[in-house]
Amino acid sequence: MDGTVWRLPGPDRLVAQVTGEVQRGRHVAVVLPAQRAAEPSFVEGLLSAIVHTLRACGEEPRRPRPFEPGLSPLRWLAQCLVFGDELPAVVGDLLDHEDASARTAVLDCTGLDAPPPAAMADLLTRLTLASRPAPRPPARAWSSSAPATCSRCWARRPPTSPSRPSGGGAA
Predict the structure, then answer these.
(1) What span, in angstroms and rounded, lies between the C-alpha atoms of 171 and 169?
(2) What is the H or E stretch that residue 133 is in?
């Protein structure tokens, strides 16, 4: 399958929706019908179109090497985003790591050696719960003609502290 299909109105809209959500700082998962997910050329075309569109917005998306059975999905993602031997072991540390912060990873979770779907769903849930979109700077009237820029993805949620009753002493 040639990559031009992703420039057609329907497929192009999917690519635009995915990249738009990433630009808003959201985690995105595209679940393909099993028949389409089994077509390597279809999956590669979609991933390439998403990466190309993100690069056109100034992003530098990273694509990891294929998943290795025996790795956890978190370790696979960490290997994609973090350079060096000290890989984060928990989601919060990955989100806080300077190599991973504000980075985009495009993962292919299809094929025979794909991570287990339940493990990927768990990772995506933990990423979502531990992160939030980075705040956007206030708009300025004079910059309305500036080209659109991509906002960045993750900032770790601040820790919550138990509420303490206000007031001084015992009744």
Answers:
(1) 6
(2) strand 131-133
Helices (H), the chain: 9-23, 34-37, 40-56, 73-81, 91-96, 117-130
Evaluate whether 109 touches 67 at the Cβ level (below 8 Å).
yes
Instruction: Tell me the pLDDT of the chain averaged across its residues.
Output: 76
pTM: 0.67
Residue indicated by tokens 């502290």: 161
For residue 129, pLDDT beyond 70 = yes
CB 112, CB 68: distance < 8 Å: no
pLDDT in tens, 147-162: 333 333 333 444 444 4
Q: Which long-range contacts (CB under 8 A, 24 or more apart) does 128-137 make?
A: 128/27, 129/157, 130/91, 130/92, 130/95, 130/156, 130/157, 131/27, 131/95, 131/155, 131/156, 131/157, 132/25, 132/156, 132/157, 133/24, 133/25, 133/26, 134/25, 134/102
pLDDT band at 143 (very low <50, low <70, confident <90, very high): very low
DSSP letter assigned to residue 112: T
Q: For the chain, give the number of residues.
A: 171
